[in-house]
Amino acid sequence: MNDIHTYQKIASQVRRDILRMVTGAGSGHPGGSMSSADILTALYFKELNVAPESWNRAGTGHDMFFLSIGHVSPLFYSVLARRGFFPVSELGTFRVYGSRLQGHPSIEAGLPGVHQASGSLGQGLSVAIGAALSKRLAGDKSRVFVLIGDGESQEGQIWEAAAAAVHHKVDNLIAMTDWNHQQIDGTTEEVQSLGDLTLKWNAFGWECIVANGHDFNSIFEAFGRADSLLGGGRPVMILFETEMGHGVDFMAGTCEWHGKSPSKEQCERGLAQLEETLGDY
Amino acid sequence: MKKYINTGNKDTRSGFGAGLSHLGAINPKVVALCADLTGSVKMDAFAKAHPERFFQCGIAEANMMGMAAGLAIGGYIPFAGTFANFAAGRVYDQIRQVVCYSETNVKIAASHAGITLGEDGATHQILEDIGLMRMLPNMVVINPCDYNQTKAATIAAAAWQGPVYLRFGRPGVPNFTPEDQVLEIGKALHLNEGSDVTVIATGHLVWEAIQAAEILATEGISVDLIDIHTIKPLDGETVISSAVKTGRVVCAEEHLMAGGLGEAVAGLLAREHPVPMRFVAVNDRFGQSGKPAQLLSAYGLDAAHIVAAVKEISGA
Lengths: 281, 316
Description:
By secondary structure, chain A is α/β, with parallel strands linked by helices. Chain A has a single domain, classed as Thiamin diphosphate (ThDP)-binding fold, Pyr/PP domains (Rossmann fold), CATH 3.40.50.970. The longest helix of chain A has 22 residues. By secondary structure, chain B is an alpha/beta fold. In chain B, α8 crosses α12 and α9 crosses α10. Chain B is globular. The two termini of chain B are about 20 Å apart. At the A-B interface, α4 and α5 of A face α3 and α5 of B.
């Protein structure tokens, strides 16, 4: 699959899934799910060396992905299901009592593809570092990816982890930031400004790449460059410039839809803007 | 009263260090992380022998817990060590999410627990950690009583599949349990068969309880003495059968009354076999600077206070 149009089609279906899941559940986080949708589509349908059949929680012999921003679970679940980790029909159980698709990703629920529970922010990067170190110790050449948020980067633990990864020369790790500039209470600039994340990550000693998180050419180019930097003694951060709510006009570019479900009518309006390419669940 | 011999005072943290070194030599999956307290927590021998398996995390405990969880996901058995205050209280949410809820095989090595940390004072003397850790689903809580038992507990923790909170202390205390014992997690030790009162002690207060039982024996009070190194899962069988036999129970611990061993035992007995109880523990206050023995006395935790509690509940 090298045709950019193929990934755009998958991402369109993933965005439909997100809208329908959040609307069906009456709760959830569509905004960040939409902003990270192209990144995770590119990751799971091309970059990540993992197959549902060989996936194991320890990550032995395959690339691992950690989702630190657990609230974008609708996106994560949609991508996992569309990639064949579990039946697509199960997406309809999102946030329902007894479901494996918990509000935030869970280990207890036993969903294939999930290495770690997340939801309480700031912790995924540290866990990914530990997993990357385990691969180094085991002589496993596969890679570790982790997705964090820009709002999440207000957490102190992110910067503890940033320093630790450099100190321990964790160079089999590709971290990604969904830099959508929005969080629950407003823009990141209003709530607690992050300054220039590029300068921050560079100052911490990371290899830092900036890419357009909604342009598959830019995403793949960033992945290629990140991969070429691995093994060089430094961890890699890709800052993906994105837009919260991207793909649905009334959700785009605002924090309003961070954690709110659309009405049925709003959902229909959104779906009308997203081509059904792989069949709704 | 069965006789227990102190073979020489030793700190329980050194028991942990000896256990960790033993594990390092026999199990290549054992790794260690420390937050700038390698010497204090006695991880230095492991760090020197296995530098590739030791991760200095600096003064950044939250990240250390996450790294430990990641290493555990990758199939390793991480021991994350620091002072109990930072190993439990400071990173509670990290332990909750990435260790317990995520069912990662992380062993938390919590040193300098309790008031016997001494001179550093209340900021470092955590008296709430047993309660905090006991409340977490999937967590095992072990509080061994001497050097030999702490070494055995460390080895047992590595063999246990799942999160473990291993609590030990700073000062030298009598070493009296057998060398090279095998510790069974969740199985209490019956130190003395008695008939009048049950005394259940944990950690440093087990030796105090032995002293108390010896004093009480000379006064004709027979103590059924239990060393409960594992607070969770609690050995209900041993606790209940002793309570049935004696009809009264005193719990002794270097911890707050709230949330600790005493409440664990009280909760169990309230459901299964209610009996009068007394609690030798710190009552809703912080510690302060002082010598360990001085503080045990001042906070009502030493042998004399256990004797007094036993007499009170016995009506003696």
